[in-house]
């Protein structure tokens, strides 16, 4: 049996908040692996700004050579909204001996009451919540809470900074920034 952390997200683009929460969960919960699961259609927000192919490429680069970080594209091959309930059911079916931990930021912990089939979902998977500035970790649901350093970083903030031609150095991995510049993602001027 393996202990596997799951980090679902839009990753539009991936940033150090994603990587540090995955690393923290890996270390604190003694996980064997963390699987990053890019969503096709996020259930509760607008579609991603860039294509699934570009998000996948950025994620691969962000993870780099860390051998316990993997990408699982299960939601990209499924049509319709990327509900976690459907994803967990499929993962449990194909990996019956493994134990899954779904890692979420405090914004998503607050939002848990609105998740699709949440009462069934909490019976299927162990949620793990990490701090995020401006959000609470109080929840009536069974969530393992990790006392991590809160990083006030979001993909929205990165996109806005890129659009304004402001620096995002140290907020995302250097190689991800190079790819964003090379492909002209997020509409920033190429001179930055
Ligand atoms: N800085 C952060 N601290 C804690 N959790 C985070 C942070 N950034 C993202 N997360 C969590 O990572 C998961 C995936 O997030 P997502 O890819 O949507 O990033 P985001 O920064 O929230 O994006 P956006 O700004 O586009 O909404 C979610 O569970 C989210 O709560
Ligand atoms: O299944 C749901 O109803 C649901 C509602 C909100 C968020 N999620 C999942 O939580 C993860 C983080 O969401 P997001 O929108 O911050 O990328 C991602 O895997 C989403 O599919 C899932």
Summarize model confidence as the mean pLDDT.
Answer: 95
The number of distinct helices, counting runs of at least 4 residues, comes to 7
* SSE string: EHEHEHEHHEEHH
Q: How far do the termini sit from each other?
A: 47 Å
Instruction: Spell out which ligands are present.
Output: adenosine-5'-triphosphate, nicotinate mononucleotide
Radius of gyration: 16 Å
CATH class: Alpha Beta
Major sheet: arrangement of strands:
3-2-1-4-5-6
Write out the CATH superfamily name: HUPs
Q: Describe the main β-sheet briefly.
A: 6 strands, parallel
Structural class: alpha/beta
What percentage of amino acids are in beta strands?
Answer: 15-25%
Give the overall shape, derived from the CA principal axes: globular
Q: Estimate percent helicity.
A: 25-40%
Query: Would you report the number of β strands?
Result: 6
Low-confidence stretches: none
CATH architectural label = 3-Layer(aba) Sandwich
CATH topology: Rossmann fold
């Amino acid at each position: 049996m393996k202990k596997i952390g799951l980090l679902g997200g839009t990753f539009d683009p991936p940033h150090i908040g994603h990587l540090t929460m995955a690393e923290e969960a890996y270390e604190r919960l003694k996980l064997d692996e963390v699987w990053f699961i890019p969503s096709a259609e996020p259930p509760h927000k607008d579609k991603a700004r860039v294509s699934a192919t570009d998000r996948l490429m950025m994620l691969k680069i962000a993870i780099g050579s860390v051998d316990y970080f993997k990408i699982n594209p299960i939601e990209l091959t499924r049509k319709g909204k990327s509900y976690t309930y459907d994803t967990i059911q499929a993962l449990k079916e194909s990996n019956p001996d493994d134990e899954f931990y779904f890692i979420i930021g405090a914004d998503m912990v607050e939002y848990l009451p609105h998740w699709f089939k949440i009462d069934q979902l909490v019976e299927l998977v162990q949620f793990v919540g990490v701090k995020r500035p401006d959000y609470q970790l109080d929840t009536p649901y069974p969530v393992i809470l990790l006392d991590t350093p809160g990083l006030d970083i979001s993909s929205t903030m990165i996109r806005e900074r890129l659009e304004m031609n402001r620096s995002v150095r140290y907020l995302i991995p250097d190689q991800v920034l190079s790819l964003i510049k090379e492909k002209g993602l997020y509409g920033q001027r190429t001179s930055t």
